[in-house]
Amino acid sequence: MQIASQLEPDFNAALAQALGLPVLAVPRGVPQHLPATVALLVAAPMDADQPPPAGWPFGLEWVQLVTSGTDKHPRWLSQSLPTATARGVAANQIAEYALAAMLYQAKSLADLWVQSPADWQARALGSLAGSTVGVVGLGAIGSALARRLLALDVRVIALRARPLPSPVPGVDIQTDLGALLAACDHVVLAAPATAATRHLLNRDTLARAKPGLHIVNVARGELIDDQALLWALEQGLVAAATLDATDPEPLPPGHPYYTHPRVRLSPHTAAIGRISRLALAHKTAQNHRRWLAGQGLLDRVGAHPDTPAS
Q1: Is the pTM of this model over 0.70?
Q2: Which domains does the chain have, with CATH numbers?
Q3: Which residues are catalytic?
Q4: Measured between alpha carbons, how far is 278 from 301 in angstroms, rounded to an integer?
Q5: pLDDT tens-place string over residues 190-212
Q6: CA–CA gap between residue 236 and residue 162 (Å, rounded)
Q7: D-isomer specific 2-hydroxyacid dehydrogenase NAD-binding domain: which residues (predicted)?
């Protein structure tokens, strides 16, 4: 039995050590061929519009995604094989990114540094303590972020579709996005991309924003209407936007975000790091042991039973 992985050598080595099985490195993208001995594919994001290759699913028994959602993979992947997501493995790392982005904005770090004696002017700095942060999506990432913010004496408001109790004590619940935007100094998007969340931030909702709002997107670019955000930046409703996700990725040459003075772009990298990769290797190994034991996969999608193929 072999495992195929589309991730980097360090991850593959950690997974091989955790399972005591060889890990075969394969190219990213829709796999065109896999040896019949490969039972598990660790699948990186790929073109969701590509059809299944000839011979699919080869000898595969199940698939482990490296993403917490399924929108960066073809639907036939999880429809044809039991598939598990990586939900939660990068929650702490992504929460740290969002927290760093808010501290960068609050402390005006872009303009703080001096290059000559003439610049040596002390200035008052802002603070996260005493501010209000909205979290859109209170799953693993949103909850990890909320706990960190509460420790810094930040008021945290989370958007939920229904007024259910918060899984994190101390977090206020809001069911109206406009009301949340009107109350917050920073808003972090941490919700999945679905039909209901597409263009969640649009001209109508952003028109209700508290002037000077800072938006952080660690979710998916589809949650933001780009033209509406550019309008809100121009109107002063939004002071700055920190975007680790865009639609599409990468943005085409000449896109206004690249040169906008109050937009900070990163290449969808908040989740990537040694700690999150080790957590993914641990989760993949745990899922493979569960699969072999006839137990349910953790964070499984699809409709297939979680039992090994006979």
Answers
A1: yes
A2: 2-88+273-301 (3.40.50.720), 91-265 (3.40.50.720)
A3: 220, 249, 268
A4: 22
A5: 999 999 999 999 999 999 999 99
A6: 31
A7: 102-270
